[in-house]
Design brief:
This protein has about 725 residues and is α+β, with helices and mostly antiparallel strands. It has helices at about 5-15, 20-25, 50-65, 75-80, 165-180, 225-250, 255-265, 265-275, 285-295, 305-310, 325-340, 360-365, 375-390, 395-425, 430-445, 470-480, 505, 515-530, 575-585, 590-610, 630-650, 650-680, and strands spanning about 30-35, 35-40, 150-155, 160, 190-195, 210, 215-220, 220, 490, 495-500, 535-540, 555, 560-570, 615-625, 690, 695, 710-715. Strand 1 (about 30-35) and strand 2 (about 35-40) form a beta hairpin.
Length: about 725
Amino acid sequence: MLRREAIIRSVNRHAPQLLGYALAAYEKHSALVVGDREISSECGVQQGDPLGPLLFSLALHDVVVPPSPEEQPPVPAALASSQVPADSASATPVRDSGQPEPAGAIGGQPTPPVPAQAPGSGDPAASPPPAGSSAARGAPEGALSQAELDLLTFFLDDGAAGGELDSLGRWLRDFEDRATAVGLRLNRGKCRLSVAPGATIPEALQGIETCPLDEIQHLGVPCGSPEKMRVFVEEAAKGAERKMRMIASLPDAHVALTLLKFCAGFVSVVHLMRAVGAVFDFAGIDQATQSCLATITGIETDASAWALASLPVRLGGLGLHSCADTAAIAHIAATFDGEACLSSLVTPYVLPHAMLLNEDDTFLASLEDPRLAPFDSVLEKIQDVLQARDNYGGRGQKVWSTTVHGERRKALLDSMTEELGRSGQLQGPALALKQVQIRARIQSCSGQHASAWLYGNAEADPRLWLSPAELAVAIRLRLGLPIAPMPSICRLCGTGSADVDGVHARSCFSGGRRTRMHNALRDVIADFARRGLLAPAVERPVFSNTERKRPDISYVRDGTTVVLDVAVTFPLQPSNPQYAKRAAEKPGGAATAYATAVKEGKYRGIIDNEPNPREWLAVPLVVDTFGAWCPGALTELRQIARKSALREDRTASAACQDFFHQLSFQVAQGVARIVISSGGARPDEAVHPVAGGSVTASRVFLPGRTCSLAGQPRSQ
């Protein structure tokens, strides 16, 4: 294992500001207690050390690139009297299962050196030195310097070296000697040697598995011939599809959806897209993602709904990004990033011969990808970067993807509204209102924190996950899909028609479920205010001139009495089309309109009649049924979250994330339960397959509980 003296010396050389930490952690041996036994921890970095990977990398850097004598800083005085042993080149190499291999590949995948020797060259010593060889470059015979190589690059413990076979053998022998001196041992079983056909392997490289040059891989991506790269991409796609099938079989639909977003599909192959570009087909992964979504939620998405689902969450989608649409941008950005650090990857001799961007067929194919053709603004930005060689500081993929997603969303909205007009189902004012409602829905879903419920937080309360039936309804409402095959009579009021879009259900005040959703939101806000030591009063009289008005929550903050009034509004309600128009203009527009028209006037006169009106502040906390808050509510809720963060010793951002996740969940669950209870959606039709049975959702909900009796396995 890595000797700790090497760690401390490397820290002193490269990051002296961390020397105190390194000495405190590794100057003396520590004892690991196992039952009644003690094991002395004397080598390697400690598990759980947040700086462990950095400290290991610093020590490994001095093995890969040995420092010159003038780069050796004076040894710290504390090191001379420490328990750390002195340097010894004869140290016995010890290997621990938890210590990374210095030249193996992460996860056991081999990392190939990249030799470049012409086939049939025979014994290098028996022929004149070829152009570009170490001898031709003027390097002395037998020199053990990385300058003889054409390529030398490491990412943590995963490295690659390339050059002539004789130079590569000498470097590897020198590398192993330096590694042994600090307690490391090269695991040759995890290395691969890529050679040209007919090449003679020198003795120093014997025992390493060989592979053809066209099958070379590095850091999990193919770097060989186009044919082998195509096979690699196809196998990666099959692996992604297998993973998604396993995710779809999970019994908890909401957990499965979260895993689909963060562990499968786009995120599992984005590194591959950056490497190989748009010349290979990633559409199969998109189809598998769409199929997995259908299995998890029971929803078959049409072209428009899937286009919306592939948009980022902040734009009203589900964040299930399309691989086929992103591959070109990913590769273009990665190519620019690679060019910027090319001088640190290859030796000065190779650098002038490196391929230029305008000579790279894969790069040119990505530039000419037809999926980028409609986005002139993105192509202009790419051309600007191509000329200036400035890839937004390595943020090119994010910048260009943001622009593409924004334009795709605009084009999708236009196509959805135009398709509605061509269908002929609606005419005149009804058609115009429906087109506005489409834009209002997507805009509201784009509001800040409106979609916090969508992907659960693993550290949150287990009850903050939707049941399969609730999730299916929430996703349908978000994507604008029908929630039932046909209209029915509303079970809440008994008179209205529970339409297939859930409009009546979200406008109906019968049944008491809107009150339950309101109270759930109020209780979450009061709980966080209580945790912030604001001493909130819930629905108590606080005004001196009337006892009839009892705000939902009131507390004193910095000498000001703050009264909060919580409300939920439906932006698509037919009785007030102005809300839809306001919501279509900007996220939270309907909530802002309701707060201005109703809530602000409710307390204005009462506060004006108080003895000191300036010491009072009325804040309407209005949210629409898609989760978008009015701006005033966002400001006040963030202040409550910050207060709670100060008392609980956590960051304000973590407190805000937790706070808005709970609020967003209460809105999404409350709306879904209202729709299900009205009869607009039949939860017993929301089926989620599991091993050995299926999952059905019960119509029974327990009062006062966050979760419904849904998602229980039913035997065949």
